[in-house]
Amino acid sequence: MSQTKDTAQSGDVRTQYCRLPLMAAVLGGVSIVIALVIGYVTYQHTLEDTEARYHKFYLNKAKMLVAAAESHPTDDPETVLAEIESLWRKSGELPADEYVCVVDNTSALICHTAHPSTVGKDVGKNVLLDAPGGGSGRLHNLLESGDDYVGGYVSSAGQQQIAAFAYMPSRKWVLGVHRSREALITEV
Q1: Distance of CA 135 to CAs 127, 146, 151, 181, Å?
Q2: Predicted confidence (pLDDT) per residue in 136-171, tens digit
Q3: CB atoms within 10 A of CB 36
Q4: How far apart are CA 148 and CA 175, in angstroms?
Q5: 61, 107, 51, 82: CA torsion to nearest 10
Q6: Which helix (H) or strand (E) holds 27?
């Protein structure tokens, strides 16, 4: 009887030792999943924070350029546009994908630092992704309202961007500072 009892205890010990690797594997797997979730949440938070900082920075940059342009209200449009572009280029180290555009009151593009060949194109139907009141709006709505805007934007080429637009009351123009959202995500 004692031998049977010893055999049974020995079997229980072996069973327990066989379960240890399984338990270790399960705990390791759970730890990996938790680490991945924490990493993903941290990445999303960092991305949102970085995007919010760029929004604020670009809106301030757009307003600065508008203020400089508004200080020359009697100058001809070409002089004002050249001054805007010059100030933007001197504004510090620029990401390769950043650009400035200016749209007149008819929704025509009158300046584009990245693609000058698009000047004259109607961009009024380009989409503002974070329009006031939620949902999406159009650039021509922004021109009509005379408001500033910062948020998501879809360019004429269909590229999703972060953008800030500042209204220029004396000329009824809108000046935009843009950057590819994809390039920003890649940097993050």
Answers
A1: 10, 19, 12, 18
A2: 789 998 899 899 999 889 988 889 899 999 999 989
A3: 10
A4: 9
A5: -30
A6: helix 2-70
Residue 98: which residues within 8 A CB-CB, separation 6 or more?
A: 177, 178, 179
Buried b (16+ CB within 10 A) or exposed e, 66-86: beebeeeeeeeeeebbebbbe
Q: Which residues does 66 contact at the CB level (< 8 Å), separation at least 6?
A: 166, 167, 168, 175
Q: Facing residues of 138 across strands?
A: 127
CA–CA distance, 83 with 42 (Å, rounded to integer): 41
DSSP class of residue 138 equals: E
Percent of the chain with pLDDT over 90: 38
Structural tokens at position 118: 């698009």
| Residue 167 CA from chain centroid, whole number | 21
pLDDT digits (tens, 9 = 90+) for 105-123: 999 999 999 999 999 999 9
The token pair that represents 74 in the structure block:
């009697």
Amino acid found at 80: V
Tokens of 50: 């970085």
Cβ pair 89, 110 in contact under 8 A: no
* % of the chain surpassing 70 pLDDT: 86
